[in-house]
Structure formats: structure tokens, C-alpha cells
Amino acid sequence: MTIALDVKSHYSFLSSTLSIPSYVKEGKERGYRTLALADDHSMMGAIEFYQSCQMEEINPILGLRMALSVQSIVPEVLLTLPFLIFAKNEKGYRDLLEIASGSDEDLFSKWMGQDVYSTENSAFIINLTHELSQQSFERLGNYFEQRQKSLYIGLDPFLLREEYISHIQNAFSQWVYVKPIAMRKLRYLKANDGPALSVLHAIKRSEEVNIQQLRPGNDYLREPKDLEHIFDSPILEKARINLENLLEECHVTIPLHQQLLPRFFKEDQSHELASQKLRALCQKALVLKNCPSKDYQERLDMELSVIDSMGFSDYFLIVWDIMRYARESKIITSPGRGSAAGALVTYLLDITTIDPLKNHLLFERFLNKDRRTMPDIDLDFPDLRREEILRYVLHKYGREHVAQISTVGTFQVRQALRDVGRVAGLQAKDLNQLTKQVPNRLGITLLEAFKESVGLRRLAEQSPYKEILGIAKKIEGLARHPSTHAAGVILSEAPLIHYTALFQKEAEQLSVSQLQMRDIEQVGLLKIDFLGLRNLTTVELTLKAINRKKTFALQDIPMNDKESFHLFQEGDTTGIFQFESDGIRRVLKGMCPESIEDLTAVNALYRPGPMEQISTFIERKKGKKPIEYVHPLLEPILSSTYGIMVYQEQVMQVAQAVAGFSLAQADLLRRAMSKKKHDLIAKQKKSFLSGALKKGLTEEEAEKIFQFIEQFANYGFNRSHAMVYSLLAYQMAYLKCHYPLEFYAALLESVSLKSDKGRLYIAEMRRRSLQIKGPDLNSSSLKDSIDGEAICMGLANIKRLPRELMERLISHRKEFGPYKQLEDVVLAAGKKFLNASYFEALILSGSLDFLGETRQSLLETLPSILQHVSFFGYQLNLLEDDPEMSITYSHAEEMPLLKRLENELEYLGLMVTQNPVSPYQQMAKDEKWGTLLEISSKKANYSEWALFTLHQIERIKTKTGELMAFLVISDQGCLTQAIVFPKLYYRWMSLLKEGQVYLGKFKVGQSKGREKSLSLQEVSDINEVEKVYKAKHTTLYINLLPENEGKVNQIRRLIYNNRGQTPVVFVKQPQRMAFRDPKLSHVFLSQSLINELKRLIGDENIRIQ
Predict the structure, then answer these.
(1) d(C-alpha 717, C-alpha 995), whole Å
(2) What global pTM score does this model have?
(3) Which of 10, 409, 506, 596 has the highest Cβ tally under 10 A?
């Protein structure tokens, strides 16, 4: 059979539109019994192609496409030709993996000079994609013939003219080792996919192309009989026969589903040694952790038996060793991750920190001998220290045995539209208009977007949008670029190159497998996820800061701290892992968690699916609804979750209690239900009903329970994972409560201060009365630091300052003492940094405020200092006695507040100058008002009150002639704009004055395709607001003495005539009995009222507090 050999898939990035499954499926439908694949320098698609062909009973011809510089053989030919290698057997396949891991030059030198790759295992083909001169062609062939190198030269009638092929055929008759072979190029399935490939090429080269002029191409999958007709001349017939002979030689079997675990010990019988070592470690830990009871020993024996029988003892020791290294290196880790927390072995090895027996976690959810899958232990480390762990693993197991895992970035809808639109010459505004029509939903397809978006359908009726959308549809989902998996690392006993080609990195870096995650698992390689968590970096930095003052560790945190739980109950969880979103905060406020168990439930429930049960859960927890169970047997299992099935483990426990399943059997039922495998569910259901009947249940009861668990198993969450992450969240909440400065300082190191999150952290600090000071050249270090009761910003926060300059200025200060005047700073910077913009950054960020001059004065004086330094060099002290030559400061008044705030935002990312709203922060906290930043982050139509300073009013007229205004406003954490629409502007225009503080009610607005905006709905003068606040938070006490009894009616009349907001309490003397009069409960507390009351009954009988 004749097939195309020069076949690239989409893993030859931006060079093909072929996805492997569609290629193989289409090939099967067209009657192909053999298909080939040879991607550029890559074996990324090898396993996917191999398995796809196996499923369709097609023989896969696995190859690789490299490049051959003809000039290295024939100096006058400046061409590069495709050099294809195809595996004939398993050894040839391994050779391909090695070749793909090296360079073109390595391949050619090894094959020609060292005779490494044998033609018994591989076939080598130079594809003649260009017509060489007769002489050059013969010199090329002779080069290999003389060295007796078996080689094919590919002849493609679509690339070479018929007369040219006839012209060179005589050369083949003279050669023994060099033979012709039929060659066809394949890049897409159908002829009308050709334009999509042209666009991919344009994307790759960053060129523009007229997509309306693109036409169908030739490099598509043809019918087998059509290919045979193409090769009809004598030389081409010979080439076709050579192809068919080669295909008969190529039969590769790739071993899959192996268990390629590395050994912890290198000695003989390492399995036995590993099992003995693992048991010894666990037995010792049982004593150290005070777990000597029979239950623990029985559980340990069971787990070790399963682990040993499945051959995973080495795996657990490898993970134990990595965690041991982390502890010795003082790298903190999370309490665990995923179902691994359900194993007593992981707890005893300090891989996890939660006791699975005390917390009812199941080993079978993690590892099940009836479900032959690799164990999956994921490890969390601080993101800034993940590389340390990877370096340790690299050095311990060797570069040949450890690698990261590759992944690919694909063309998602917006990316496809952007790329196609760009090469089609679409203007930026038109491109934005196009992509904004796509609904904002993760994973949406172009077809779904087209159905949902009227705007997209309208654009599809016009050129060039019609063509852009058509091509975007063809490339959607194709691989766009290679990348590296965020966490995955693979280890193996034999060199990895036996199983996967590698993208090689520098000596101290891990290589990257060309196989992706799914294919890694199919091969049977051990994968461990090493995740870098920013939250763990926050915890680690917080602990470091605390330990500068006292010794403290996470183990010192009590598990029942009321203040920490109060934080969750108030939804005050900014910066707390897994609990930061607005939605989960609302759940926390409703549920009022009081334990780690409660937090675990929140974590598990706040997900699509179980969310529907949250209100029922809360009402049952608070006793507002009765707790109901489908059957009494479920009560012991579901009592902690108030009759609601929340966890996957509960599904397993119910199956065990009701139907007598083992936990291993129950895990298979859970898995079948969660993956909606209906054939397996039916089989399991039969066993479930049978088991339930044996335990005395009726068929109706058993059916009802099965339906109940089937309903919840679809979205039940892993309890082990929810619990370990809830524990980490609780630990962070404890640090936030009891060590707030250290906690916030750590948080701020992990984000940009200019980001929404950074500004949110700053705003929350200020609301909690925690001080943050701007950088100060005389006291700040490079990074943020804690000084007393404040966080001091480091100089590294100042934008546009070279790090070398900052280090130089700090070093000079340490050596020669504090700076006293601006010229000291300029001189310390030296000639290399004699640039006005650097000193302006220091001035406008407030870093030189300690000099005692206004920022405006320093700015105006700076040019004079720079001029003196340029002219006199470093001899400024010689000019001090000459009044005409000495430097004189301008002593200008300070620049306006708005300008200072804008400068601080520009250079620091936040405002450090005290805002006029600052004195009212306690009032804002008591009244639970929001901040401008918080309101801005909400969804459209949200409204809330906030204090603000009004800086500027820009009045404009609408098309109808009405006045409206744009306001520039700020609070301590945000500088933004707000709109006042005409009707409201006429209402408030007389009240609004620049430079004043107000309380305003703001509404979030967002028009389609535009950014969110704030509009002012109501506004109050701060003085009036403060009066009301003080009245609400002040109480008037009136002593009623027996001698003043005749004046009571006058007192009552005074209070009645001055009704207001201040509570009134009467105190009857001498009994000291306090009481409230419902009709005289509140008064408007004015000075005239106080004076009148004092005149009536004396100063000593009136008290305000």
C-alpha cells in the first residue's frame, strides 16, 4: 500500500493542522492499513499515535523529521533538506527517542562517523524537496554510496517535475546503497484545510497574509488508490515498491502500562530492602507519635501489605526522603494534598500531618489493590523554594533519571481569533471588537460562542470576519507552543530516554519529557507533582519574621483558637488559602465555623454541584431544619454533615455499612459513579442490592439508598484533600490573627503593590489600624521590613531605580552614616547614576522626606545640584564659603495632595501620604462601610457606602444640554474616578467642593465591552456624618435625685423636644437604679441642651460617655 511518509501533526508547531485522532480515524475510514508520522524534532505525539492506530488496527510507522544541511556534503548547495528516520522495531524506536533528544548535527555525526544507528533498526530518508543540479544530486548520492550507508531519497511528483525525475533516474541505477522511495507530503486532512496551514505559517513568521485569496492545497490525505496512480513512471514505480517493502519491515511494539519505578536502594533484592526499611520507619514513628494502640498497628499492617504487594515500597521511601530533605533544609510543606492524607503510612513518614484514624480518612480512597493505578502523592512547597527541592532530586537520582513533564499551549477561541485576525491585517480596535463578542466562559468552543453571541453571528456575515472565523474554527484546539507542566516531575530506574524523548536543558536544570502527562502514565513512569504554593511562601516568611523575636513553629498553633475561628465567622479571610473569594466568605458568615471539621465541610461544599446543599447544611447546623437520614444505618456516617453526603469517603462508608462492601470494593463503586461509567454502575448496583438484602434491608430500602448515593457521588469531594487544605487555611488565619504585621509583610512580598490584590491587602491593613510606612533612604533596606508596629517599605519597591543604585546608596549609608542633604545623595550615587530621573523617583516616592524639605522644593533644587556636580565634580564642600556658588534650596510650598498621591501611585504602586479620610477610619470600621477598591472589584449593580476625598470636579454638558460631572476621588487605598449623572449632580452640586471629605454611596456600572465604573448615588458632608456617628455611639446619663423630683417633667419636656439619635439612660439615686424610658429613649445632643440640663439639676448630675 502507498502512503504519505512526510507526515507532520500539530506537534510540529504551526506547521500542520493534523490532530492525531482525526488523522487516524480518517485514515481508517479511507481504507489505510498503515499510517506514518514524522514530526519536526519531536516525539511528542508518538504514544498518542501508536495507541490511536492500535485502536483502529492500523500499523503505525513511527518516525522523526530532522534537517540535513546539504552544504556540509555539497559545498556549493546552500540548502537544507528534510532528513526522515523511521523505526523498524523497538530498538529503532529507542533510537528515535535518543535522536529527538539531540541536535541535527549530533544525529548526522553519529550516523556517519560513529556508525551508531543501524539500518537493521531504522530507515533513513533524504526527502528531495528541491531540484538539485544533476552534478550536485550525484555528488550527494555518491557521498553515501561510497561510505556504504543505506539511504533512501524521497521522490514526490508534486514537488519535482516529471522531466527532472527522468533526468536523475540513471544515477539510481549506478547505486547499490542509495535507493529511491515514493514520498508524499501530508499536512492536513482535506484540500480546503490548506488556507488554515498558510495562516499557521504566517503566525509562525509574524507575517500578514490576504486570507481572502488563499486557496485549497495539495498536501491533504488522499485515497490510497489515488496515490498509487501518481507513481506510474518506471523510476516512480520502483520508488513505490521500495516504499511498500519498507512498510513491511516496520513493526514497532511499544511496551505500555509498565511499572517503571526507580529503586530507593541500588543493592540486590532492593524490593525486600525497601519493604523492610519502610516498615522500620513506620514502626518507629508509631511510638514517637504516641500511636501504640491495636487499631493503629492493624491499620499499619494492612497498608504495608497492600503497598508491598503492589510493589510501591520504593515509591514511599523516595517521597519520604524528599520530605526529610525539606525538613532538614527548613523548607516548610503543606499538611498534605489529595487522598494521600488518608494513609497512615504517609502520616507516620511525615509526608502528611493529619492523623487519618482520628479524622476518619480512608486508605482505600488513596490506594486500592483492586484498582491497579499508581499511587499519587503530590507535594506542596513554598513557590520560591521549589527549585531547591528539584535540585536535590536531580543530584540524588541523576540527570538521566529525572525530568519535568511537557505540556502544550493550544489555540483556545480568543487566542485563535487574535492570531488569525492579526495575520489577516485586522486593526487592534477591530480585533478587540471581535474577541469581545466571545462569551467570557472558561473552555468555551467557537461553536458554542457562535450559538450564544448575536454579535459574533452578525460579524460572521461580513468579510474579512467570515474568513477569520472559518480559519479560527479549523485551528481551534491545535497545539500552538510547547510548555512545561507547572508541577509534574518523572523519575525512572533506567535512563528516561528509553521511554521518552527529552527537551534538553542546561546542566543544573531538569530536562523536560517530550511526552505529556497522559502518555507518561500510559508508559508507566512514576510521576510526582512538586507544587510551588505562594501561600506556603507567605507562611514561611511569616514564621521567619516571628522567629526573629521568639521561637515559634506551626506545631505550636492550638487547634481551638477562638479568635482564628472568629476570623472565618466574619468572612475576614483576605490572604487565607482557599477562602478568599466573595462567595465562600458569604458561606463562612452563614455557617459560622467553629472547628477544622466545619472548615473542611465549607471547603468541600463550595464547589459546583454541592453548592446547592449549602443552605440546607447551614439551616440544619443551626437547628432551623430537622436532620433527616434516608435510613438509620446512615446516621453514624452522615451525622457530622447533618445528613448530607459531602465527601467521597462517605459514599464508600455507606456502601460498606449497607451492602457489606469492603472499602476497596466501595472505592470501585465511587469511582464508577463519579466517572458516570454506566456499565460498571449497573454491575456494582447488582452487588450492592444483593449485599443490602443479606444485611436485612428490604429491596425498596436498598434501592432508595443506592439512588441517594448515586445522586451525590457525582460531585462528592475528597475529604482528605479538603481537610489538609482547611488545616493550612486555619494555620494562616492563626498567623493573621496573632502576628498580623508579620503576616501582612509576607503577603505583600508575594504580590505587586500596584495589583488589585496588593492594594486590597494594603487597604485591609489600614482598616485594621496597621501602619505601612513609605520607603526612607536613611532607614529602609532593600526589602520590606518590620519596624516596631509598622511595615516599612523597602527601596526595591521604587519603580525605575536600578537595583545596583539602591544597593550602592544603602552601602554608602552604612559606611558613612545617614544622608543630611540632597547633594549627599547625588554624590553617593556616583557618575554612573548621575541621572535626574533616578533622584526624581526618590523624591516623588517620599524616600527623601527626612531631609525636612518639601518634595516640590527638592524637585526645584535638583537641577542646580546636578549642574554643580557636573561642573565641579565631587568638590562641592569647597563651595560652601562662597555664597554665590553654594547650593540654595527653593523652600517651595508642597505640591497639592492629589499630585503627591498620583506620584506615589506611579513610583510605589500605593499611596503612603495620609489621606484626609484617615482620621475617620474607626468610624468607617464601626459602620461597616466599604472602600473604593473593594467596591470597584464587585460586579455590576453592586452598591455600597465609602468615605472619599474629592480632588477634582470636571463638569461637562450632555447632548441634551444637562450638566453632569466626572470626579477624581481617593481614599487611603485607591485613586479613581466617579461619575455623577445629571439628575444627581443638580441635587449635590452645591455640596461638592474640591479638597473635602465625604461619605458617598457608589454603584458599580459596566457597559458591554467596557471597563467597570463607579457612579455616585448619594453623598453626605463628613461633619454631618460624624455628628450622627457620635450621637449613635454616645450615651447621656441623667441622675435623678430626690430633691430634683419636681423638675422631672421639665427634663422630660426638654428631651421630648430634642429627640434624636443619642441614647438616654436615667439613674435613680440613691438606689443607683438605671432605666430607659421608651418614649424618651433618644435625644439630639446639642450644647444648648446640655447647658439647660446642667442649669436645671447641676453639672454633677449630667454625664456623657
Answers:
(1) 54
(2) 0.83
(3) 10
